[in-house]
Predict the 3D structure of the following.
Amino acid sequence: MQIAAFVFLFLIVMFIVLTAVQRRQIIEKYLVRPEFERKYSQFAAHPIAGDDIIFLGDSITEAFHVDEIFPDLPVKNRGISGDTTNGVLERLHQITAGQPQKIFLMIGSNDLGFGYSEAHVIANYETILARIRQESPGTQVYVQSILPRKKRYAHKITAVNAAIAALAPKYGCQFIDLFPEFADEMGTLRPEFTNDDLHLLDTGYTLWSSLIAPYVSE
């Protein structure tokens, strides 16, 4: 117990003295990357088909049981916990190679949480949309706004959402603004939808699915 307590205290001290960039690098290398590689290998073993409807994103998407919510449609979940716009770019070829029918994209919350700038997220979004349009021109893309989280992220999320709303039509994509349905007056995730100010409870997924159902089934 004493050794565990010492290690825990040491880690806290280390995170205090490290810069924000160094902390992000440690988190991405030791916490995010192993999960990314596991999911990447699983997805590679189950390639996308032309009639598939893909949900692409991070842990919020990963926990979205789309196969149960839309049981009569060829939906596939391609969410990875901890993923970022960098990660989506790295694995995007897995998606576009199959020329899917539709892609529902939600990504960027972890970027902001890890300290990446709004400009970084927006630039990566444009690259993602441009690549999908080039590599899978027949795919209908639905760009979903980043969901709210704690108050300190409200301004950044609002800025990114405004930018990707403007990018979507440039690449023939449909923007779906979910943010106002989930946010309170301060721009934070409403408590009835979450238990940690980030991830969704079933109430959140029920609302989300109701908002996108017309686009999924059209």
